[in-house]
Amino acid sequence: GGGRSTADAAVTDRIYVDLKGLSSPSTPSTDRIVIGLFGDDAPQPVSLLKQLTSPGGLPAKCKPLESRVLQKEQLEANKVYNGCKETEDDVGVNYDFSSVWRVDRDRRIDLGAVSGRFVARVSPSFEDAGSGLRHDGPGVVSVRRGDDGGFGFTIYPGKGGSAAARILDEDNVVVGRVLEGMDVVERLNELPVVQSAGVNYMALTGGATVKNAPSRACRYGGPMYCNELKPLKKVLISGAGAAQ
């Protein structure tokens, strides 16, 4: 089916994210993207994004402590868990110091891999309200449907009707569109990234192309911390909030 156009969807809320490291690591300047959220079309995901960009953050429990075979890994798991429990009740998850973790040029830009102190939190489940909205042009913003996408969000940099757009239509819920800062999105889209020869895109988190052991963040935070297509320079969200 055709679906509705994101250009016609009502913007109910506006949020901003400020990115650091895109211009040059030495300059203090930040680059701002303002996103209009479709609260009528995707009420539940939008409410979660508003909390993730609010001063109090999104309340989220710690992942249960896992049993590890190796004593060294068990000690590390205990440490991660105990560190998480210390702030579980009074600190909500937010995007401060979260990273732009994957750029698949013209196909997707994935932001909001939360900082180390939040990697052991249980990620939310984003619900689909069946709005019929699609990734129909550059700047559409979406979140992964269900609970395996972490806390992050995706900006679609490409054109409507592409194969990449169809994949996102299947996996993600459209939650908004970029209102200001498309020039910033275009620069993100051009970032050089880590690429192994002949990587299998669907086997991003393991397999023969991965040469080194995954980092602690990769083990505890999930696939967004050990991926191919990670920008070669670190671009972080230095701040986020409600935009006027």
From TrEMBL:
Coiled coil: none annotated. It comes from the Eukaryota. Residues 32-242 form the PPIase cyclophilin-type domain. One of its GO terms (molecular function) is peptidyl-prolyl cis-trans isomerase activity. Pfam families: Pro_isomerase. Gene3D superfamilies: Cyclophilin-like. InterPro entries: Cyclophilin-like_dom_sf (IPR029000), Cyclophilin-type_PPIase_dom (IPR002130), CYP28-like (IPR044178). This is PPIase cyclophilin-type domain-containing protein. It comes from Trieres chinensis.
